[in-house]
Amino acid sequence: MDKEAIIRQSFALQAKFCADLGSPFTANLLEGLGKNLNRLTKTGRTILDWDGQPDAFGDAIALRLAGALHGLVRSGQLPKLAKFYPPHSFTSPKELAKATMIAISEADDEICHWLTYAPQTNEVARSALLYLGMRVIAKETGLPLSIYELGSSAGLNLMLDKFHYRFAGQEFGALGSKVVLAPKWIGKLPDGANPHIINRRGCDLNPLDIENPAHRLRLLAYIWPDQQERLDRAKAAIEIALNEPPKIDKADAADWVENVIDKNGEKGVARILFHSITYQYFPEDIKARIVTHMEELGNMASKQTPLAWLAFEQFEDQGACLTLRLWQGSSNDGDLILLAKAGAHVKEINWL
Predict the structure, then answer these.
(1) What backbone phi and psi angles, to 5 degrees, belong to 9?
(2) Residue 161's Cα: distance from chain center in Å?
(3) What pLDDT sits at residue 48?
(4) CATH number for 163
């Protein structure tokens, strides 16, 4: 299969992913783009001659283009195409494809600029799982937490203790928060303690500044336009983050872990490295360095300087899972514990 065919196939595959995750509009949009893109525009040439891995596990070019179009629609730059976007009623895949190709010709340069950015969704629903993991760590250690996130984007999930949660009919977190997460629950509710977060910090190769309106637009643009609940949730989380913008460093993940999470843990504080649906995109040498550093620090951990690694990532053949490694100077330090399973958008949590 030649390169162009592989690229067109990546659009079809991403369309299927979107349909499976409850976004029929984006599925139709991407399917039409995969069939109709041509070399008459700079955008078409850039996409069809893409040098790199085009699919969702590489450069995610289909989502880059979908995000570009959504961003330009949201900013009012493509009013004709906006008439085909939610909340307007969907017409037909053929009419959407025609309107999209016209929009690409009208905003060719702007779209090409957007294509240089990798999608950064900051999926706030994942905080539900991460918060539960931090409750487990807070219970196990009995200490306040310093949390460090890889692939933070704008850092919305660093604010997870400021959201309101409903699990199995019980209320947790910041009751009354504008962000309410209430996924369907399967399994026994775990014991835990409310996490007291005293320090929060993240890193990203291309961090978004939550105080920059253009960056806020990008955050919303990568959320699929027919998923209003996700859009509303992200807007509410942005409002919360604007009150106390988290510190996000522009850095390589391995360099950052090695430099920021140092060997001299603060006594009386549990340090937590965490990430969600991002680790799979790291090169193998970066992953290896992170593992080496965390295990070295883990060997020096104690009850007074515990270390945890909380990850919501693809796990073996079981799909997206929440796992925990905890070091606190005991015999089973660093054992991998499988805590829960959930979909990428965390509509349901199966606590294991």
Answers:
(1) -65, -35
(2) 17
(3) 96
(4) 3.40.50
Task: Specify the pLDDT at position 317.
Answer: 84
* Residue where a domain terminates, one of 114, 140, 171: 114
Q: Do 85 and 46 sit in the same domain of this protein?
A: yes
Parent domain of 323: 124-351
pLDDT given for residue 90 in this prediction? 78
Residues in the chain: 352
Question: Which tokens belong to 350?
Answer: 């199966």
Domain count of the fold of the chain = 2
For 311, other C-beta atoms within 10 Å of its C-beta total: 23
For the ranges 77-86, 123-132, 289-298, 325-334, the lowest mean pLDDT is seen at 325-334
Residue with tokens 């909380």: 310
- d(CA 177, CA 195) in angstroms, rounded, equals 16
Give yes or no for residue 263 having a pLDDT over 80.
no
Whether the CB-CB separation of 94 and 22 falls below 8 Å is answered with no
Query: 324 in helix, strand or coil?
Result: strand
CA dihedral 172, 177, 181, 187 (to 10 degrees): 10
Beta carbons within 10 angstroms of residue 275's beta carbon = 25
Q: Are residues 141 and 92 in the same domain?
A: no
DSSP per residue, 123-171: -GGGHHHHHHHHHHHHHHH-S-EEEEEES-TT-GGGGGGGSEEEETTEE
Residue 331: band (very low, low, confident or very high) from pLDDT cuts 50, 70, 90: confident
Helices (H), 227-271: 228-243, 253-260
215 and 133 belong to one structural domain? yes
Asked whether residue 231 is assigned to any structural domain, the reply reads yes
- CB-based contacts of 42, cutoff 8 Å, min separation 6: 108, 109, 112
Burial (Cβ within 10 Å: 0-12, 13-18, ≥19) of residue 226? buried
Task: Summarize the confidence of residues 191-214 as an average pLDDT.
Answer: 95
